[in-house]
Specification:
34% of the residues lie in helices and 16% in strands. The termini are far apart. It has 242 residues and is an alpha+beta fold. It has seven helices and eight strands; from the N terminus they run αβαβββαβααβαβαβ. It has one domain: endopeptidase fold (from Nostoc punctiforme) (Alpha-Beta Complex), CATH 3.90.1720. Helix 4 packs across helix 5. Strands 4-3-2-1-5-8 form a six-stranded antiparallel sheet.
Length: 242
């Protein structure tokens, strides 16, 4: 009987400890989330928001064949728009090109500590003169259809293509950011990833291996940007990273 009492007491104490631990974790998550949302006041129009979407096999396939700044996993990017009333939006190709409230964007994926899995880049001082025209191009693109095929210059936009086309130099058909040959192959085996085989099979299109393209990871590593703020990566906030 005494042994049974000890076992029951131990189990009860363990349960109470777990409940307090869970409550502390929930409080920390709530604090981190609230802090991140407050941090949006620091954003400026023209900033680029990069995100780890966690959208399943497709996002995993994108992240496997691309690399983000400091090894981050990035599957989405859009352009920050800050309204005169202080409200913050993201102009993004997430489906059709649209203007999305920043709170909606940040809530798409939180890490285990309650931080949105997002980082912010800003063009360097030398290229600030491009901000106004980039924002106008992005705004004029709202409503255009999503580019499921990931092909440049076909009248449709995927997320990083929208950024690429928006940040063009005046009067010339050249972007601030550079394209690179696309790959859809597993870097370990050199074979096409099954996700991409099935994806393009469903589109009735060949896989555009080697065609010019751009992705969030490639833009994030551009020397034309500096990374201002990490909301969630590596479990910390970094105010200034180059």
């Amino acid at each position: 009987m005494k042994n049974l009492f000890v076992v029951c007491l131990t189990a009860l104490l363990l349960l109470v400890s777990l409940l307090f631990l869970k409550k502390d974790q929930q409080s920390q998550i709530a604090f981190n989330t609230a802090t991140a949302f407050a941090d949006t006041s620091k954003l400026q129009s023209g900033d680029l928001l990069f995100q780890d979407l966690q959208c399943g096999a497709l996002c995993d396939a994108i992240e496997l064949v691309t690399t983000g700044v400091l090894g981050s996993h990035l599957s989405h990017v859009g352009i920050i728009e800050k309204a005169a009333n202080g409200r913050v939006y993201l102009i993004e190709a997430y489906g059709n090109v649209a203007r999305t409230p920043i709170v909606t964007v940040l809530n798409r994926h939180l890490d285990k500590k309650g931080n949105p899995a997002v980082l912010i880049g800003r063009v360097r001082e030398k290229y600030i003169y491009l901000l106004d025209s980039a924002l106008i191009r992005a705004q004029l693109s709202i409503g255009l259809p999503y580019d499921d095929a990931f092909i440049l210059k076909n009248g449709h936009y995927y997320c990083s293509e929208l950024v690429y086309d928006s940040y063009k130099f005046p009067a010339i058909d050249s972007s601030l950011f550079v394209v690179a040959p696309m790959t859809f192959k597993d870097p370990k085996t050199g074979n096409f990833l099954p996700t991409w085989i099935n994806y393009y099979h469903d589109l009735h299109l060949p896989i555009p291996e080697g065609e010019p393209g751009i992705n969030p990871g490639l833009i994030s590593r551009s020397d034309k940007l500096h990374i201002l703020h990490f909301f969630g990566f590596h479990g910390q906030r970094l105010d200034s990273i180059d």
